[in-house]
């Protein structure tokens, strides 16, 4: 198991999926689960900023994620919402939802079940998020804490939101700072994690670095096509 943690815009998702593809492992985006719950709360006109309201409703929607490295999907109550959870509205609300203890308890248990299932099936997995190496999977063989400068992270996130004309790098950087503050409690780096600053590195370089470390820890480096699930 490989854990990839780090702040928004550091490149966790692209990196984790790239590593999973290179090593023929499954891929779990834990942040997508928090985003799915956030979108559901918004769709139900519930106050996502009120911890008590969020706690009462945390277990109501059925949230499902696949571990397909090529096309991971997210469903809520059977409906595919994969493309709907990446909006600025969800991004700016998800930290408030994810900080509620009842939410974390519920979704961390689901995440651990997915990881346990992959291990039981004899299939490795790359999990990415904010507290994978410290809470969700402290037993991970490889732990990476991926970071980058504020400007680089804002530029990357803004590029992901090209359909939203309001998502300029400056606006995105300000929103990012607020998320960093709100997510601080869940963003600790594991003591045995490798810190990788991706500011001046290409995606291929970051993936290559992690793959090399994984090889040193016993992961096979070739001959294993990416698994889906």
Structure notes:
The chain is of the alpha/beta class and 229 residues long. The protein has a single domain, classed as Rossmann fold (3-Layer(aba) Sandwich), CATH 3.40.50. It is 47% helix and 14% strand. The chain has a five-stranded parallel sheet with strand order 2-6-1-7-8, sandwiched between helices. Strands 3-4-5 form a three-stranded antiparallel sheet, with helices on one face. Helix 2 packs across helix 4 and helix 7 packs across helix 8. The longest helix is centred in the middle third of the chain and has 20 residues. It is globular, with a radius of gyration of 17 Å. The chain starts with a strand and ends in a 13-residue tail after the last helix.
């Amino acid at each position: 198991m490989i854990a990839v943690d780090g702040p928004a815009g550091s490149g966790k998702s692209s990196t984790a999926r790239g590593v999973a593809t290179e090593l023929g492992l499954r891929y779990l985006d834990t942040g997508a689960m928090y985003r799915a719950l956030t979108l559901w709360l918004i769709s139900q006109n519930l106050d996502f900023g009120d911890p008590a309201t969020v706690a009462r409703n945390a277990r109501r929607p059925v949230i499902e994620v696949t571990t397909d490295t090529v096309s991971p999907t997210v469903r809520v109550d059977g409906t595919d919402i994969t493309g709907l959870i990446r909006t600025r509205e969800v991004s700016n609300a998800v930290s408030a939802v994810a900080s509620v203890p009842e939410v974390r308890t519920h979704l961390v248990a689901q995440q651990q079940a997915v990881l346990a299932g992959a291990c039981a099936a004899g299939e490795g997995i790359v999990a990415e998020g904010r507290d994978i190496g410290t809470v969700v999977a402290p037993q991970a063989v490889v732990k990476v804490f991926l970071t980058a400068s504020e400007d680089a992270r804002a530029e990357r996130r803004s590029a992901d939101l090209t359909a939203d004309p309001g998502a300029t790098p400056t606006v995105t950087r300000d929103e990012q700072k607020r998320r960093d503050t709100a997510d601080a409690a869940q963003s600790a780096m594991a003591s045995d994690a490798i810190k990788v600053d991706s500011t001046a590195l290409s995606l291929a370089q970051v993936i290559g670095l992690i793959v090399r470390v994984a090889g040193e820890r016993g992961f096979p480096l070739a001959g294993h096509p990416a698994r889906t699930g």
